[in-house]
Amino acid sequence: MSRHRIADLSDLPVGTMKLVEVDGRPLCVANLEECGIRAIDDLCTHEQESLSEGEIWKCEVECPQHGSRFSFLTGEVVGLPAEQSTRVYEVTVEGNDVYVQL
Amino acid sequence: MVTILLPREDVRADLGLLEARRDMNTDLKERINPPERRPVDIRDLTAMTALMRSKVAIEDAATTAQNRRCPTELGNINVNQFLEGILVMINGDEHRSRRKKLNRLVRPEELIRWRDEVAMPSVDRWLLNAASKREDDTLECDLADVAERVFLEFAAKFIGLDGVDTEEGMGRLRSCTTTIFAGMQASHFEDREQVTNDALEAKRIFADEYFRPSFAARRAEMAQVESGEIADEEMPLNLMKLILEGLDPSFEDEDAAIREALLMFVATTGTSVQAILSTVYFLHGWFEQNPGGRHRAQDPDFLAMALQEAVRMRAPWAPYLTRLATEDIELDGYDVRAGDEIHARLVSANRDPAVFGPDAGEFNPLREVPEGVRRYGIGFGTGQHQCLGLRTVLGNDGKGGTHVFLLRRLYQGGMRMDPDTPCEVLPMQDMDPSQEIPIYATFPVVLDGWETER
Question: How far off is chain A from B104, nearest CA to CA, in Å?
């Protein structure tokens, strides 16, 4: 496990997501009004679309292409057509620095 | 046999064909009158999936409309009048942008509305309307007729069309359904001229009598929303509302908007009806062979599996889908070069024994599929182009969809195929003779215990 600084908190307003790449791995990092700062794999398990280009729904993200939904809390699929869960990452915030454990 | 000639020159001028041809630039001319392309049939699932996920095998209106059999005026009409610019023919960022906005129509809360407020009430209404009593007090009806009315009403609400609440309005729009469905894929039919001309007339009826007055009504509603007279939630979400909100700048051209509405119209009615009928047909045989499984006919999990298996076996109810290769592609067992016209034989791929096992050609709702393989195979498409209605069929959770609930409702009413009256099917050409993909025109059923108050 290694800790990586991935963003300035000030660059991630509440209700937004962004794509960050850590060691070549694309992550979708979101600042959720109801669930805080969260990170999951950015590529949808259904057809490899970028989830960070999708839409936030409470603590879930909707894929921009086919509408699959994933929980930011557990990585589970909460809406078809995806069937395979995605990976969640532990996120910590220290001051203005956002870190992820990989 | 009656032969109907191509539209006269003045009609073609009305349709904008001649003007379009005069003004077209070299690139468009190339697309409308493409050079002869080499057809490549792809039949196995692994190669098909890799191909359709690649960015170099694109949908293309001219390729789809004309294919190798008929690069003629009929193909040009098919492009110009039905296929150019519709969701299934655009690619890349243009497709991604439009699809993202269209996904609003099939979000979880909308799925429940479509199912509980639109489809299920209409099942009861149209079934009782169509059913007649038999001597033994059971009911009989043509399920093809009932399903078509249900999904036609569904399609109208999905698009935002008015005028289907009456028998007359429903009948008039219904007369266009099969005609437009056939016209959009006219290259697959033997009498292409007649299919095309009938479809043009059906499009005129659709546009003049349904689309234009309905769009004007939706525009008036939108004006009320914008002025604060009504809340946004009071205006039901449908395709026309999305168009008015700026779904795609191309829809400022009215005919482009009509073409998109036609796509939603046929995609919602034709394939849905055939999916329901095919599932009932297959389950009829499966229950005979597995009488112990009959109790599962009202189990949504089981019905969802049966639906997916029927989709795997028969979708897309056409011989093949067409793609244009824009670059050379290395596929196991296939030599695909830039410019090739790829015929994606989805039904063959979906019956690939290397993936689904030696019984891949048989219906088995309890089939175990390998990890990473979808139960419906690529019956809802794969890669960028996948069915917008998938969650309408199966539900957000995979078992609460409109189609699953419709099947459950029918089995709750004791539905079984009529043992005395066979189904009628429509003939199509270029189907793989080893694979039966009937398009049902009639589907007689008996209902042993239909109760209206369910």
Answer: 9
Q: Which of B53, B372, B391 lies at the smallest CB-CB distance from A67?
A: B391
- Each of the 454 residues of chain B gets a pLDDT tens digit; together they read 223 333 334 334 444 443 444 344 445 445 545 556 788 889 899 999 998 888 888 888 888 887 655 567 888 899 999 999 999 999 999 999 999 999 999 999 999 999 999 999 999 999 988 999 999 989 999 999 999 999 999 999 999 999 998 889 999 999 999 899 889 988 888 888 999 999 999 999 999 999 999 999 999 999 999 999 999 999 999 999 999 999 999 999 999 999 999 999 999 998 999 999 999 999 999 999 999 999 999 999 999 999 999 999 998 887 788 888 999 988 888 889 998 989 889 899 999 999 999 999 999 999 999 998 999 999 999 898 999 999 999 999 999 999 999 999 999 999 999 999 999 997 666 666 667 788 899 999 999 988 765 4
* Residue A98, helix vs strand vs coil: strand
To probe the interface with B, which of A45, A47, A49, A65 has the most B CB atoms within 10 Å?
Answer: A65
List chain B residues with CB under 8 Å of A65: 96, 99-100, 384
ipTM over 0.85: yes
Q: Do B372 and A84 touch (CB under 8 A)?
A: yes
Nearest CA among B255, B212, B177 for reference residue B15: B255
CA distance B91 to B451: 47
> Distance from B396 to chain A by nearest Cα, in Å?
5
Whether chain B has a CB inside 8 Å of the CB on A36: the answer is: no
Contact at CB, A47 and B396, closer than 8 angstroms: no
Residue contact B384–A65, C-beta within 8 A: yes
